[in-house]
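This entry is listed below:
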Amino acid sequence: MKQISKDMTIAEILTVDRGVVPFLLNAGMHCVGCPSAAMETLEEASFVHGTEVDNLVDEINDYLKASA
């Protein structure tokens, strides 16, 4: 089963499943295609965008589990 973690970069998360893009955009992370996505972890991006990382990880992993 596919899962993500908060220490993965945005780019790594996008390789797991492109269907997570709406979750990132809804969290204010419009950087899914920018160079920062290759280096910034989900935890770092969540901090910058004022998003609760654990909730976002849970939402994305719930989606991944349901789409398996």
Q: What stands out?
A: The two ends are 7 Å apart (CA to CA). Residues 23 and 59 are 8 Å apart (CA to CA). The mean pLDDT is 93.
